[in-house]
Specification:
Blueprint: H1 10-16, H2 21-25, H3 33-43, H4 52-84, E1 90-95, E2 98-104, E3 107-108, H5 123-138, H6 145-154, H7 158-177, E4 181-192, E5 195-211, E6 214-230, E7 244-256, E8 261-263
Antiparallel strand pairs: 1-2, 2-3, 4-5, 5-6, 6-7, 6-8
Length: about 270
């Protein structure tokens, strides 16, 4: 095409030729050159390259994140296990000589001690209740006497406890006045064959007291019967986990023995 060739607009030619507007719109419009160049560049694939160090860094971070995820899951599982597992069972025997561990998680630490299911209170519990009651009544320690008497009253039926306190009042006054210190040695604790809820107790009481400015030591043997009642509350702290209450103290007798020592020198006690 020569440079003198004229380019006419298609819409102008159509209108001048008397063509309708619909015919003019059917004529395809010219595509700009810039659009063709953009499409050619889009269809052309450009190779992409990644820095090897960058790839190694991403891989290392992925490994670290995976390891941390497993650690978090393991810690969560361990925490749930420690939260819902049964607590360790430790049995401690508290004595005057000190505390000692006898059982730990069911494993026997001291010979002769075993952990079993609780049984219904029986004859052994009756004898235990009788021995505890007798010791609190006839073992006098000025430092713990008040506490011992309070526990003694809790072991009894309320009406029997009030009656015993009334009967013991003169004896308690004498013990305070003469500064009694006594020990109790149980000798016989047996169930009455005629009454399964009566326990016969025989024991020896060693007494140290001050009478007329003299220190006297003597021993006497006591015998009595204890009437027990089954505690409907079961094994509770008031009955020292025996399941029985003391209902009455009967047939009390004292057998006095010769005085072992009488002196006005306190160092000879």
């Amino acid at each position: 095409m020569s440079s003198n060739t004229k380019v006419y607009d298609a819409s102008v030619d159509a209108s001048s030729a008397g063509a309708t507007p619909e015919a003019a719109t059917d004529t395809p419009a010219a595509i700009p050159a810039t659009s063709i160049d953009s499409a050619e560049r889009a269809t052309t694939s450009t190779p992409l390259y990644r820095d090897p160090e960058d790839v190694r860094l991403v891989f290392s971070l992925s490994q670290t994140a995976t390891i941390l995820a497993f650690v978090v899951l393991a810690l969560g599982g361990f925490s749930l296990y420690m939260t819902f597992r049964s607590p360790p069972l430790i049995v401690i025997d508290r004595t005057k000589e000190g505390d000692r561990v006898v059982l730990m998680d069911g494993q026997q630490i001291v010979d002769g001690v075993a952990l079993t299911r609780d049984r219904r209170p029986g004859d052994e519990d009756k004898r235990t209740a009788a021995n505890i009651f007798s010791a609190r009544l006839y073992r006098v320690d000025p430092q713990t006497r008040k506490t011992d008497l309070e526990k003694l009253i809790k072991m009894m039926v309320p009406g029997a406890a009030a009656e015993l306190v009334r009967l013991l009042k003169p004896d308690l006054e004498q013990q305070r006045r003469e500064h009694w210190q006594t020990s109790w040695e149980p000798q016989v604790t047996s169930i009455d064959p005629a009454d399964a809820y009566t326990v016969r107790v025989v024991g020896r009481q060693h007494i140290t007291r001050v009478a007329k400015n003299e220190v006297a030591q003597e021993a006497r043997q006591l015998t009595f019967n204890l009437k027990l009642l089954f505690d409907s509350r079961g094994r509770v702290e008031d009955n020292d986990r025996t399941g029985f209450l003391i209902a009455d103290l009967r047939d009390f007798r004292i057998i006095n023995e010769p005085t072992a020592l009488t002196s006005n020198d306190p160092t000879r006690r």
